[in-house]
Amino acid sequence: MPFKLVAMLLAGGALAASAGESIQTPSVFAPVSTPADEIRDLAWLVIGITGAIFVVVEALLLVAILRYRRRRDDDGREPAQVYASGPIEMAWTIVPVIIVVVLFLVTTRSIATLQKDSAPPGWLQVTLVGHQWWWEFRYPEYGITTANELHVPTSGPGEGRPTFLTLHSADVIHSFWIPQLAGKTDLVPNRENHMWIEPREPGLFVGQCAEYCGTQHANMLIRVIAHPPEEFEAWVQSQQRDAVDDPEAHAGRDRFLSTACVNCHRVAGTRANGSFGPDLTHLMSRATIGAGVLANDRENLIAWVEDPDHFKPGALMPAMGLSDPDVERVVDYLVTLQ
Ligand code: CUA
User: Fold this and answer.
1) What is the β-pairing status of strands 149-153 and 221-227?
2) Which of 42, 97, 140, 246: disulfide with 336, CB 3.0–4.6 Å?
3) What radius of gyration, in Å, describes the C-alpha atoms of the chain?
């Protein structure tokens, strides 16, 4: 776990530096969302109770070791033995039972808060599909599909629109985890899971796949961007538009549309209509490519299109074997997809 967090920080830090944005440490102890608050509070309570038990048990152990240790003048006889003390038996039965009941009740209360089987009225609904090794985000109510960067509005208890997530997987088990927003929830093939988030501050929150899902599991990063409600509406409108059709990029567009790219990628308003890979309609509205492995700029796009496997060994996107001028032309088109 520490390794994963360190890797996450390094990845987040590297991208932050390239994109010039600040990233908060993805710590469960710095929640900014109601489900994450609940988990943090429960964690501290459990740590407090179990910590107190640890201290008491270790203290008794130390006393026993020091006070009843073998001494030089021991005569070798056992001390007087005490059997079946009613009050002591009662105490060490009843006290643990009470502790367990308390932990059971507070955990049950937290689970009741965290689990919702359907979206309450008015909530934003997003469907997540886990793929090897990227995230697909669909907004059914707006007809938007995007990848790896989840945009949601800010909200607070009783105000704004919290986001209700429906989780699916296209292949193997993945797990969606943004420590500051909510606990992890698995994306399981042939099963529908749910979770919800309610970021109360605008900003960028990072996380990553938390269930080993193959060679590129560690490069299945998540970025959640929380916007004030008006800004979120503007983002929705920009995403609902068809792809920009820049006449200057027609050569690249035609080359793109003549390759097998179109079998896996969609660009709304063109005949590229694949759904196996990320939707590219608004590719340049995303800060990263390859689910967070590279900053999304022209130079990196060229390197990525030339050889995805170099950055993500095992990536299911093949190197298309285009000539250098063709790669440049295709990328000249891709960078117009704002
Ligand atoms: Cu997806 Cu690990």
Assistant:
1) parallel
2) 246
3) 27
Q: How far is CA 2 from each of CA 7, 18, 25, 221, rounded to the nearest angstrom?
A: 9, 24, 13, 16
Residue 232: which residues within 8 A CB-CB, separation 6 or more?
A: 151, 152, 153, 154
Q: Write down the H helix ranges in 20-33.
A: none
The rounded Å distance from CA 246 to ligand 1 centre is 36
CA distance 14 to 54: 39
151-173 b/e with 16+ CB inside 10 Å = b? bbbbbeeeebbbbbbbbbbeebe
Which tokens is 325 given?
A: 């001028």
Distance 115 CA to ligand 1 centre (A): 22
Q: Of 64-78, 171-185, 258-272, 320-334, which gets the smallest average pLDDT?
A: 64-78
From the CA of 290, how far away is ligand 1's center (Å)? 13
Q: Is there an atom of ligand 1 within 6 Å of 209 CB?
A: yes
Atom 1 (ligand 1) nearest CA:
174
The CB of 212 under 6 Å from ligand 1? The reply is yes
pLDDT at 155: 93
Evaluate the CA torsion angle 227, 231, 234, 238 in order and state its sign: negative
pLDDT tens-place string over residues 108-149:
999 999 999 999 999 999 999 999 999 999 999 999 999 999
Distance 75 CA to ligand 1 centre (A): 64
The finding on whether 152 has its CB within 6 A of some atom of ligand 1 is no
74 Cβ contact partners less than 8 Å away, ≥ 6 residues apart:
none
Q: Of 254, 265, 277, whose CA–CA distance to 326 is shortest?
A: 254
Q: What's the burial of 145, exposed, middle or buried (CB within 10 Å: 0-12/13-18/19+)?
A: buried
Task: Name residue, tokens 């200057």.
Answer: 248
- Measured from the CB, is residue 211 less than 6 Å from ligand 1? yes
**Cβ of residue 215 lying under 6 Å from some atom of ligand 1:** no
